[in-house]
From TrEMBL:
Main subcellular location of this protein, as a coarse class: membrane
InterPro entries membership: Plipid/glycerol_acylTrfase (IPR002123)
GO molecular function, one term: lysophosphatidylethanolamine acyltransferase activity
Keyword entries, A-Z: Acyltransferase, Lipid metabolism, Membrane, Transferase, Transmembrane, Transmembrane helix
Organism: Edaphobacter dinghuensis
Protein name: Phospholipid/glycerol acyltransferase domain-containing protein
GO cellular component, one term: membrane
Species lineage: Bacteria, Pseudomonadati, Acidobacteriota, Terriglobia, Terriglobales
Compartment list: Membrane
A Pfam family the protein falls into: Acyltransferase
Length: 205
């Protein structure tokens, strides 16, 4: 697997990205150290669970409700104090990269405002560059979407050749009136980056 990176690497603060696969976590961590934010189930996954534990990941219980907010905010505050950039995926799930960027869930944007940290954006996309992958597709065999089981998907992914990841980092999101304004501004930038990558792919740029 190979990857390319465009844009200035974040040094601290928060980073939000679109989300295509469990592979996203490994790709971002290969670029530079991050504190990742992931759903609590990831902690118990084979292999990826151990990797994310060692990376100091903040695990968030989906649908935990108000009773979990205090613990999540405290964990996020500690993550920002680590000095590493904190990366999370506010879509809350993965997509196939072709159906657009989902609406952002706003909960974790509270921590960005509460701690007064910089917010940056990022976008990830994948490409199959080896002709040996006949019949395979990024949407089905790299992106992990819906009810696809982890084991069979991982088996297909490991059988691919010439998987290329492209990461683009955007500038700081400066519209910070509240979490609604902040999340919508961030999503708008991520959408622009993802749509730009898709257009380039379609026209062969």
């Amino acid at each position: 697997m190979e990857w390319s990176v465009a844009g200035r690497l974040p040094e601290s603060g928060a980073v939000v990205s679109n989300h295509l696969s469990y592979l996203d976590i490994l790709v971002y961590l290969s670029v530079r150290p991050f504190v990742m934010v992931a759903k609590s189930e990831v902690e118990h996954w084979p292999l990826l669970g151990k990797i994310t534990q060692r990376a100091g990941t903040v695990y968030v219980q989906r649908g935990g409700g108000p009773s979990t907010y205090g613990a999540v905010n405290a964990a996020m505050a500690a993550a920002y104090r680590s000095g590493l950039p904190v990366l999370f995926f506010p879509e809350g799930t993965t997509t196939d990269g072709q159906s657009g960027v989902l609406p952002f869930r706003r909960g974790l944007f509270h921590s960005v405002l509460n701690e007064g940290v910089e917010l940056r954006t990022a976008a990830v996309r994948y490409e199959l560059v080896d002709s040996a992958n006949e019949g395979a597709s990024v949407a089905r065999d790299v992106c992990w979407v819906g009810d696809d089981y982890l084991g069979p998907h991982l088996f297909r992914l490991l059988g691919l050749r010439g998987v290329k990841a492209e990461i683009q980092f955007g500038d700081e999101v400066r519209a910070r009136g509240d979490r609604f304004v902040l999340s919508e501004g961030a999503r708008g930038v991520v959408v622009e980056m993802c749509e730009g990558a898709l257009v380039s792919e379609l026209v062969g740029v």
